[in-house]
Write a structure and sequence with these properties.
Elements: E1 2-16, E2 21-23, E3 28-29, E4 33-50, E5 57-60, E6 63-64, H1 68-81, E7 87-94, H2 103-118, H3 125-133, H4 139-142, E8 147-151, E9 160-165, E10 173-177, H5 188-198, H6 202-221, H7 225-244, H8 255-269, E11 275-278, E12 284-288, H9 293-304, E13 309-312, E14 319-320
Pfam families: MDD_C, MVD-like_N
Keywords: ATP-binding, Lipid biosynthesis, Lipid metabolism, Lyase, Nucleotide-binding
EC number: 4.1.1.33
């Protein structure tokens, strides 16, 4: 047996955050989340199952890496296919790795599609979403394009993402302010578990997020960019409040993150419709319209450098390439 398949998947940025697992092994979250898949950032992955191999190998950006999570994920794929064959995995990240730009979402969505196809599984998008979730929770959403909701479910069968609007035709996009492209000190898995375990605000955050999701879906249905931005910004800050209130506390902010957030607030004061969101990393994403993007870029370039401002429109779901 020697089967080779390549796939591409794009990152997504959550407008309603996922932060914390009820079941760390199956990656079942405490709350539903909602994201926008982005065109600019993506991962290309090639998987070759070859019965002449004696072990799994993984190459990221042409560098061999020993990654137990990738091997574990391949074990899940092998178990589903009932085939005992090793694989060579070659991945290229067109997004900074572990910098709060959802590289794990695109990585495991691409891996799920490439690996399942290469081993002979013919999975539906829902089944692919469930599979991708086992590698990274947010990867469940990157199977689909556009606006996507991850339904938390209660078990492996009913925790998957569903598209809300795959072909986004209204005026919404993001600007990523690349404050730091280096790997973060506290990875998402460790950070969210520490928040769940020690923050006195954690379960209140989950409770308020349920209403945020209802309000967000209503704002999306009305194409209300300002409301979408307001809800997303507030939801993100509540998530980060759980890291600041953890014991011991920690943060993904750095001084430039705060400077970027203040800059967005100042743009709003001048009449521009723009809002920020942040994930587990220092980089700030701005939710805005295509129409106002040139003005925003002009104002932020002197502060952060034009090369550090990356515009990302809504992107597609995972595909074979």
């Amino acid at each position: 047996m020697k089967n080779k398949v390549s796939a591409r998947a794009h990152t997504n940025i959550a407008l309603i955050k996922y932060w914390g697992k009820q079941d760390p092994d199956l990656i079942i979250p405490y709350n539903n989340s909602l994201s926008l898949t982005l065109e600019h950032f993506y991962t290309d992955t090639t998987v070759t199952f070859d019965d002449t191999l004696s072990e799994d190998t993984f190459f990221l950006n042409d560098q061999r890496i020993n990654d137990k999570k990738v091997v574990h994920f391949l074990d899940i794929v092998r178990d589903k296919a009932q085939k005992n064959v090793f694989a060579k995995v070659e991945s290229t990240n067109h997004v900074p790795t572990s910098a709060g730009l959802a590289s794990s979402a695109s990585a495991y969505a691409a891996l799920a599609l490439a690996a399942s196809s290469a081993i002979g599984l013919q999975l539906t998008k829902r089944e692919l979403s469930r599979l991708a979730r086992r590698g990274s929770g947010s990867a469940s959403r990157s199977i689909f394009g556009g606006l996507v909701e991850w339904e938390k479910g209660h078990n492996d069968e009913d925790s998957f993402a569903v598209p809300i609007e795959e072909n986004v035709t209204w005026d919404i996009q993001m600007i990523a302010i690349m404050i730091n492209s280096h790997e973060k000190e506290i990875d998402s898995r460790s950070g969210m578990q520490h928040s769940v375990d020690t923050s006195p605000f954690y379960h209140d955050w989950v409770k308020t997020t349920e209403q945020d999701l209802i309000d967000m879906k209503d704002a999306i249905s009305k194409r209300d960019l300002a409301k979408v931005g307001q809800i997303a910004e507030n939801n993100a800050m509540k998530m980060h409040a759980t890291t600041l209130s953890a014991n011991p506390s920690f943060t993904y902010f750095n001084p430039d993150s705060i400077r970027a957030m203040d800059a967005v607030k100042n743009l709003r004061k001048s009449g521009i419709t723009c809002y920020f969101t942040m994930d587990a990393g220092p980089n700030v994403k701005i939710i805005c319209s295509k129409a106002e993007t040139p003005y925003i870029l002009n104002k932020l370039s002197p502060l952060f450098g034009a090369d550090n401002l990356l515009v990302a429109k809504p992107g597609p779901g995972a595909t074979i390439i």
